[in-house]
């Protein structure tokens, strides 16, 4: 049972002696965990506020926040940096301004809230730091969030102020004019505000001003520093299965997560630079932003368009790059296609280079080959600016083949991480020097984990591997200082997530691999369904297998419990199809993509490729997709994806219910 290629020289988890119970594995901890999981930060800080001030004292003149300059002709130029000292002064003044505007006023729960509603930009971080200096709880709002979700979050928190970009101001104005957002008094816009806009909000009983004006108001004041128990943020989950829930995250939750990562041994320094483009409304980017502060490193923002992020990477030249499997899969496919199209001497060099690097990788764990990196792979590394020395993937599972290939061609470690909003995202990691793949590693030094039986899915803590070694399987549960305090104003949902002993039940199924003790995610309690013959199917596992097809950009696998087989909605990869399929099938390259997708030959070729992959990936008979529907329009966070690119299955099923019914109505 299980799998993975973890090497025995890594020890990711050790059992706590005497902790095993019936129906559960022992409690496991990181070998570097201290008694009671109490690992302090190197600075001795017990709040994010203290951590920031300690970094400012050490690195006041070092560049911190970087934004690309807009040239007079509208093009983007070099990065312009604000130092740690400059950001500290500005955040303090904005904080004083927020206090003078009455936004530190506490509600019946003893909390004051300010929303931040924007894409990643320096004003986002400055507002967050300003709120922290005054003990205000920030509530991030995704810039792609639907208006009804914004309305719900504002109503539940009763927030009186929101800081936002001009683009999001339109949504606020519309909702207010329709009678919503009645708790809001002040809107703080990052860009200039017109007199007309001031008048429009004034008529609705609201005030609008710029962030710069707030800073001017707050020229004089005093900080109101948070304590470890102060609620730092309420982070609303992106809601893949229903309405968003507000995870309550304290200063201590964040500090203990940072401490646990530090003890894990992640190499980071003040010389590093990082590009911020994953949504700051998500806990993964929030914890990374604080990790950057901890080390006094540079934090540069993308220009706001993911499709043009290569231009930002070329200008910033980051040393650390964090992304999600969907983008890494895209890198993999594009690089593979480039290598496959090489001819003559170039093809020979690519083949020999890959072979040489693979040999070094598998025998000694070496990722750098000075000869082949210069001859073949330097251009690949330049895609990320040329200086990246460490990468991390998280948010969803990634194929081991993709991970291994990208490590070779980018010549740097790629860590795999796993966590949840409720554990401040940074929960389980692989070691930077581990060349294995197919697993997510072990817990940070401030978390306990255990695996709990899931009898309905045939996962038990007593399971053994194929060679007879103990390999417990079950639902991953977390306990420790990084675990959140609960869902805001949702005691029933909190009780469902955290049991009476403080264990957070993740809903994810994992196996603990023999030898290294690494965790390998194998299933999801909520993302499985039972077919008519009684077989349980894990949708994400099957989607990962099929996404290796060059034909497939996005996929939604579905199974009806009254049916005996799977179907799928496929969004093809338009670039690959136009480049590699149209000519061979006498289809004009300028043909509308919807017409190409309606071509029966394309469906035939996609199914043929999927069947080939099903064999290669050793999918079981009931896991093989039998019918597909081709959707020409990619899914985005505006419809079926969360801001972190996860498919919202509930919404996907609702959107394609007629298609699903039609596919099942047709003869097999």
Walk me through this protein's architecture.
Helix 1 (48-59) runs parallel beside helix 9 (283-295), helix 2 (84-100) packs across helix 7 (211-217) and helix 12 packs across helix 13 (370-381). A 6-stranded antiparallel β-sheet has the order 1-2-19-20-21-22. With 668 residues, the protein is of the alpha/beta class. The chain is 35% helix and 20% strand.
Number of distinct beta strands? 27
Helical content stands at 25-40%
Distance between the termini: 32 Å
Biggest beta sheet summary: 6 strands, antiparallel
What is the CATH superfamily label of the largest domain? Luciferase, Domain 3
What is the typical, i.e. mean, pLDDT? Answer: 91
Q: How would you classify the helix and strand content by structural class? A: alpha/beta
Inertia-based shape:
globular
The low-pLDDT segments are 1-8
The CATH architecture of the largest domain would be Roll
DSSP helical segment count: 21
- CA-atom Rg in angstroms: 25 Å
List the domain count as a whole number: 3
- Largest beta sheet: strand ordering: 1-2-19-20-21-22
């Amino acid at each position: 049972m299980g799998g993975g290629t973890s090497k025995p020289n890594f020890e990711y988890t050790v059992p706590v002696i005497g902790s095993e119970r019936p129906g559960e594995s022992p409690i496991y901890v990181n070998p570097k965990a201290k008694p009671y999981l109490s690992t302090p930060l190197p600075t001795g800080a017990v709040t994010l506020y203290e951590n920031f001030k300690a970094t400012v004292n050490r690195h006041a003149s070092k560049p911190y926040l970087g934004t690309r300059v807009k040239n007079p002709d509208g093009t983007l130029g070099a990065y312009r940096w604000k130092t740690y000292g400059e950001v500290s002064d500005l955040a303090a003044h904005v904080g004083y301004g927020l206090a003078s505007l009455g936004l530190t006023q506490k509600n019946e729960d003893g909390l004051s809230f300010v929303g931040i509603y924007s894409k990643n930009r320096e004003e986002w971080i400055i507002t967050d730091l300003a709120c922290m200096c005054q003990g205000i709880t920030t509530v991030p709002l995704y810039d792609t969030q639907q208006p009804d979700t914004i309305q719900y979050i504002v109503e539940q928190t009763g927030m009186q102020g929101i800081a936002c970009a001009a683009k999001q101001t339109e949504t606020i104005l519309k909702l207010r004019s329709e009678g919503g957002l009645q708790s809001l008094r002040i809107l703080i816009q990052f860009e200039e505000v017109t007199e007309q806009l001031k008048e429009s909000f004034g008529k609705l009983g609201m005030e609008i001003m710029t962030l710069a004006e707030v800073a001017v108001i707050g020229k004089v004041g005093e900080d109101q520093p948070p304590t470890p128990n102060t609620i730092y943020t309420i982070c609303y989950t992106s809601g893949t299965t229903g309405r968003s829930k507000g995870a309550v995250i304290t200063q201590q939750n964040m500090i203990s997560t940072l401490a646990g990562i530090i003890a894990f041994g992640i190499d980071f320094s003040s010389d590093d630079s990082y590009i911020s483009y994953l949504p700051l409304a998500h806990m993964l980017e929030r914890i990374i932003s604080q990790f950057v502060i901890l080390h006094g490193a540079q934090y540069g923002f993308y220009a706001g368009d993911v499709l043009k992020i290569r231009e930002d990477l070329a200008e910033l030249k980051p040393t650390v790059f964090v992304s999600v499997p969907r983008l890494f899969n895209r890198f993999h496919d594009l690089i593979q296609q480039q290598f496959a199209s090489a001819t003559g001497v170039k093809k020979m060099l690519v083949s020999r280079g890959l072979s040489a690097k693979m040999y070094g990788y598998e025998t000694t764990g070496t990722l750098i080959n000075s000869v082949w990196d210069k001859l073949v792979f330097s251009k690949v590394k330049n895609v990320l600016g040329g200086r990246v020395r460490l990468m991390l993937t998280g948010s969803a599972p990634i194929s081991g083949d993709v991970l291994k290939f990208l490590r070779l061609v980018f010549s740097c470690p790629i860590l795999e991480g796993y966590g949840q909003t409720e554990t401040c995202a940074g929960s389980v990691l692989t070691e930077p020097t581990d060349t294995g793949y197919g697993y997510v590693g072990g817990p940070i030094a401030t978390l306990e984990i255990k695996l709990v039986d899931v009898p309905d899915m045939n996962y038990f803590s007593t399971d053994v591997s194929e060679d007879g070694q103990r390999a417990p399987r079950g639902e991953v549960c977390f306990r420790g200082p990084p675990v959140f305090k609960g869902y805001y104003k949702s005691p029933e949902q909190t009780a469902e997530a955290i049991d009476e002993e403080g264990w957070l039940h993740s809903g994810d199924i994992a196996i603990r691999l023999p030898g290294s003790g690494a965790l390998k995610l194998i299933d999801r309690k909520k993302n499985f369904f039972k077919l008519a013959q009684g077989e349980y199917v894990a949708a994400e596992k099957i989607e990962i297998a099929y996404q290796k097809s060059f034909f497939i950009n996005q996929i939604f696998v579905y199974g009806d419990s009254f049916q005996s087989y799977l179907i799928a909605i496929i969004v093809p990869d338009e670039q690959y199809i136009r480049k590699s399929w149209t000519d061979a099938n006498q289809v004009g390259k300028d043909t509308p993509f919807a017409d190409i997708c309606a071509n029966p030959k394309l469906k035939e070729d996609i199914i043929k490729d999927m069947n080939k992959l099903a064999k290669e990936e050793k999918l079981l008979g009931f896991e093989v997709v039998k019918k597909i529907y081709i959707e020409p329009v990619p899914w985005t966070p505006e419809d079926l994806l969360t801001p972190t690119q996860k498919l919202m299955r509930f919404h996907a099923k609702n959107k394609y219910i007629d298609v699903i019914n039609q596919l099942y109505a047709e003869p097999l």
